[in-house]
Amino acid sequence: MLYIIRPIEETDEPFLSEILYQALYIPPGASPLPRDIILRPELAKYIQDWGRKDDIGFIAALKPSQILVGAAWLRLFTSNNPGYGYIDDNTPELSIAVLPKYRAQGIGTKLLTELLCQARSSYSAVSLSVLLDNPALRLYRRFGFEVFEQHDNSLTMIKDLERVAS
Ligand SMILES: CC(C)(COP(=O)(O)OP(=O)(O)OC[C@H]1O[C@@H](n2cnc3c(N)ncnc32)[C@H](O)[C@@H]1OP(=O)(O)O)[C@@H](O)C(=O)NCCC(=O)NCCS
Description:
Bound molecules: coenzyme A
Shape: globular
Structural class: alpha+beta
Distance between the termini: 27 Å
């Protein structure tokens, strides 16, 4: 499968909505979440007004069709309006998903590689929130994310971007 990784543009916001929905982990056998769940303020804020000066993100697009298949991005939150994986005001939080039929073919790895490489010039660390039973946890560990804290069935993880070995 041929695809390119390119920066997210403001016009990609509808696709980011789809990816935000896809990023909500549903355990096998559980019912799908309602589509409008991403309109809730605590989720909508992950993509609203994409293109703020501190936002960094990449999209995977198939070649030559340009069909968009995945995205990964970083956004800063604040202590008075934190994200699920909030650590501090200087550590952006990662969101990532690939459309179901394109998963487990290396696209997420490529997106994350590009994103973390770019993030190094702006940030010293990146955080995320993941449910304990989400297989994505293996991907995050491979990239060097470490557990920062646990809340019930979810982990907040951090990746130190200043450490040489990744
Ligand atoms: C997590 C995700 C972005 C990875 O992208 P990908 O293109 O599938 O990943 P790659 O092929 O590069 O790497 C494979 C790894 O992705 C993860 N993965 C693969 N399929 C997955 C799935 N259906 N759900 C969650 N994670 C998955 C696993 O960690 C896998 O590692 P493993 O081979 O050791 O099991 C993608 O699978 C996805 O969108 N999953 C559902 C949404 C999600 O869970 N997002 C993260 C929320 S914290």
